[in-house]
Every structure is written in C-alpha cells, then in structure tokens.
C-alpha cells in the first residue's frame, strides 16, 4: 500500500466499475468516500467492499440517490477528486426516455454544483460512454472524442427496449455536464469507455460482462449487440480514471486510448470456442 494521496469520492460504489475503482484507489494510497443508494431495511450486503484491504481505515459510506441531487453533498466534503460513476442502467426499458434522462442530468448537475461550491475538489471525472460518441449514422471506421452521438438518430434507429434510452441519457448528460463545467469554471474531464469486460468484485454478474458471455449463456437477444461491440478491460478503465485524477493537464472529453480499433466479436470467436470446449459446454454456433 502506498502513502496517503488524498480523498476521492466515488459515486455508486456498489456497481461494477465503481467497486473496481474503489479497490484500485485503496491499493494506491487514496482514502475513499463512496455513495450507495438508501437501504432503509439494511438488507444490502456490502462486505465485498468493507472486506477490501485498507477499507476499515480508508473507506467511508454515504447514502445518496441521483433522484435527490442534494443528497451527495455530505459525501463530497473534504474530497480532492470526484469520480462520477453512478448511473441507472435499465435495458428493460421500465421507465420513459425522458424520466431516465432527466434524472441523470439533474442528479449529475446537482453533484457538479456541490463540487463547484466545495473548497477542496480540484478535479471531477465523469464516466461517460462511447454511446455518447458513435451513434450518429456516420459511415466511417474511426471516430475519436470529437464525435458526438445524435439523439434524434438514436431515437429513430435503436428501437429495441432500453438501449436507445441509455445512449440518449449518456449523450445528453455528458453534454450538460461539460456545459455546466465550462460555464462555472469547474475542472471536469470525461472518460468514454466501450463495453467494459473483465473480472469483478460486485456480487452479481455485471450487465456488460453478461452481454459478452451471451453466446456462452445462450442469450440470443443480445447477439446483435455483440456483432458491433468494442471492448475494454476494467483495469484499463480504472487506470484511465486514476490517470485523469492525477494529471492536471488533462482536459475536456475522452481518452483516445479507450477508443481502440474495432474489436469485432467474430475475431474472438476461436478463443470463445476454446474456452467453451474447456468448460465442457455445448458447441457454440453462429
Ligand atoms: N459497463 C460498461 O460496459 C460501461 C461502458 C461505458 C460506460 N459505462 C458507464 O460506467 C458507469 C458504471 O457502469 P457499470 O457497468 O459499473 O454499471 P452498474 O454495475 O450497473 O453500476 C451502476 C451504479 O449506479 C448506481 N445507481 C443506479 N441508479 C442510481 C440512482 N438513481 N442514484 C444513485 N446511484 C444509482 C447503482 O446502484 P445500485 O447498486 O443501488 O443499483 C450502481 O452502483 C455508468 O455511468 C455507465 O454508463 C459502463
């Protein structure tokens, strides 16, 4: 464990990426304040976080919900950096696009306002997505962070439940966050990960990991997502967030390193077959 590097707030500590980030931050000498959603019946098992090395001394929990933007203020107190990771992900489309997007924007702006008022927060990193970059109908192979998804195009084109809503809410929230930062002189950078894969410490299989295992798990409705998936390892995502916290010269949007050349799923098929055979699963066919 390294020397104390200051205090960082990670929102949505129970999630796949946030819990991995908390583990990394503790290992690399940071103190961490994380937010979880209110659990009045105290049914939630957070031992995957409280048992992390260093957690008993350096990890603190706060309750907060994006539906109540002011609820994050206590968690931010005294923090030097903020990793804004929490986000409702509802591929089943239980709520309307407007409700999901409005909550994401209001919650995020609420946190950014509190960061602006804070005397200690030096850098905020917002976890966006390539969903805010590449869904624009442009027929080109390579896109970098200068590209934006087109909300109207997504609405017309991606009609399967929940997916379009998620991409629209990520695009609109990132735009609103960058605009707020610019207008208020807040030091905000955004990270644009593709489909995040790799090991996890949270208790349930993360959505993106389950997507990548769709062929092994037989989830045929997710096959179309695989055919156009770009992937990034969760360790690389954690490194990118921590690099952005520590490197004051970084500014604006994205990290090119995460937008790797198209990693077409069929290129990985041989490896997947190998793994499936090793695991004595039924033959995988496409
Ligand atoms: N995984 C990927 O492939 C991927 C790719 C690109 C970008 N991202 C972005 O990375 C971030 C984390 O993704 P993830 O895969 O780690 O997702 P995840 O495992 O589903 O975690 C989401 C986190 O957000 C919290 N959350 C949900 N609704 C909330 C609300 N109303 N108020 C406060 N917290 C709330 C969840 O809390 P509960 O546990 O209480 O539900 C959970 O802790 C998201 O912003 C996502 O858009 C992910």
UniProtKB/TrEMBL annotation:
InterPro entries membership: Epimerase_deHydtase (IPR001509), NAD(P)-bd_dom_sf (IPR036291), NAD(P)_dehydrat-like (IPR050425)
Entry's Gene Ontology molecular function annotations: oxidoreductase activity, acting on the CH-OH group of donors, NAD or NADP as acceptor
Keyword Transport: no
Keyword Ribonucleoprotein (UniProt): no
Coiled coil: none
Alphabetical list of Pfam families matching this protein: Epimerase
Keyword annotations: Membrane, NADP, Oxidoreductase, Transmembrane, Transmembrane helix
Classification via CDD domains: FR_SDR_e (cd08958)
TM helices/strands, residue ranges: 7-26
Residue ranges of domain NAD-dependent epimerase/dehydratase in the record: 8-251
Signal peptide (from-to): none
Highest taxon in the source lineage: Eukaryota
Entry's family note: Belongs to the NAD(P)-dependent epimerase/dehydratase family. Dihydroflavonol-4-reductase subfamily.
PANTHER family assigned: CINNAMOYL-COA REDUCTASE 16, NAD DEPENDENT EPIMERASE/DEHYDRATASE
Name of the protein in its database record: NAD-dependent epimerase/dehydratase domain-containing protein
Species of the source: Dipteronia dyeriana
């Amino acid at each position: 464990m390294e020397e104390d590097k200051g205090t960082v707030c990670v929102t949505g500590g129970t999630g796949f990426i946030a819990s991995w980030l908390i583990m990394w931050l503790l290992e690399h000498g940071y103190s961490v304040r994380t937010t979880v959603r209110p659990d009045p019946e105290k049914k939630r098992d957070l031992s995957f976080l409280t048992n992390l090395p260093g957690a008993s001394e350096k990890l603190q929990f706060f309750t907060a919900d994006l539906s109540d933007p002011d609820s994050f203020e206590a968690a931010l107190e005294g923090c030097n950096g903020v990793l804004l990771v929490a986000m409702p992900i509802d591929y089943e489309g239980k709520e309307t696009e407007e409700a999901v997007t409005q909550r994401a924007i209001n919650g995020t702006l609420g946190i950014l306002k509190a960061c602006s008022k804070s005397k200690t927060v030096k850098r905020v990193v917002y976890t966006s997505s390539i969903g805010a970059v590449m869904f624009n109908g442009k027929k080109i192979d390579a896109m970098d962070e200068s590209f934006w998804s087109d909300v109207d195009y997504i609405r017309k084109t991606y009609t399967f439940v929940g997916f379009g809503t998620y991409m629209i809410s990520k695009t609109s929230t990132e735009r609103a966050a960058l605009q707020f930062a610019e207008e208020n002189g807040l030091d905000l950078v955004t990270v644009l990960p593709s489909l995040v894969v790799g090991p996890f410490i949270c208790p349930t299989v993360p959505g993106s990991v389950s997507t990548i295992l769709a062929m092994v798990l037989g989830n045929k409705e997710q096959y179309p997502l695989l055919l156009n998936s770009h992937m990034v390892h969760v360790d690389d995502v954690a490194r990118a967030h921590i690099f952005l916290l520590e490197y004051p010269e970084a500014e604006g949007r994205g990290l090119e390193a995460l937008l790797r050349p198209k990693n077409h799923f069929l290129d990985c098929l041989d490896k997947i077959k190998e793994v499936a055979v090793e695991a004595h699963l039924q033959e995988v066919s496409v």
